[in-house]
Amino acid sequence: MTPAAALVDAPVDIRVTGLAPRQSVTLQATTKDYLGKLWRGQLAARADAHGVYDTRGDMHLFWSLHCVSAVADCFLVPALAPTDVDIDVLRSGRAVGHGVLSRRGAAAGVTWTNTTLAQDGVVGTYFAPPPGSPPAPAVMVIGGSEGGYGYYPAALVASHGYPAVAVAYFKEPGLPSTLANIPLEYFETALRWLAGQPGVDPKRLVVLGTSRGGEASLLIGSAFPDLVHGVVAVVPSEQVYPGFPDTSSPAWTLGGKPVPVGPIPVEKIAGPVLALGGAKDEVWDSSGAVERIVDRARAYGRKDVVGVVYPNAGHGLSYVENMPPVAVGEFGGTFEGNERAQTASWARTLQFLAALGK
To answer: Counting beta carbons within 10 angstroms of the beta carbon of residue 67, is it exposed (0 to 12), middle (13 to 18) or buried (19 or more)?
Structure first.
């Protein structure tokens, strides 16, 4: 395996030698998630004329991982600490070769600290890059209607040198129980907290949001242009939606008043915007939203608002790359389309942050 230890977002090359010319074998990967659930995936392989099979960095084997327990809520959550992945070469069901890959959701040296409503004004987890990292743009990461923190993108962002705080905004103690009546000022507090952390450049704060968090990221950027210097909106909406699941309540408030349903004024965002959508999104029309975000920005003379639509991707574009796709049928897209789009969109996100850091 090259490398033998890698972040989950890094490609890994698996090379098998000593096979018979043109021999057919099966590669099998086995690992456990952070909850101890067992996962396994397989990939049919065929040696070349020299008895060698090389994945050349293709990650199909890792995409094929599935939960052996097959429970309904099984979702491969990468552990932050190193986790072994056993790679076996099977011939007629018998292992004839073995190797171990170490994968991790956070780079060595990345530290994480939980924040609290009482002490910090925000519920979340802060990820600090390894010691000695130069000052860099910092990122506030927010998830969608599942109530997630955006924990894993935040850990990976910090692994690439960008301080990041993953923020919960409902379904946690002290916060609203559902996505309804969420004060945008809560995110303002989170941004000001982030700006005060060591190694953070307060003039380069980015909001990265997915799904309803993508909608929120655009809203936050437009509401607080003095704080937000860039936005990455993944499978977002271009307009404000009502609360969820209670659509009779507003999702967001500002100044104690409901933010009305309607187009988001993306032209008010002070910094660049990267909007990413899937053309086969079955949750909502994120591809159309991306196009409308860009069109509105262009109408106001903004050229730093960029949109990318991935033709075979669905709503699962928002998940961590090099992991098995989540509920393709429900979220849309194709198995490979989602995986290819995740890889490409994550690269675009890191390029966006790097450009802001110059």
So the answer is: middle
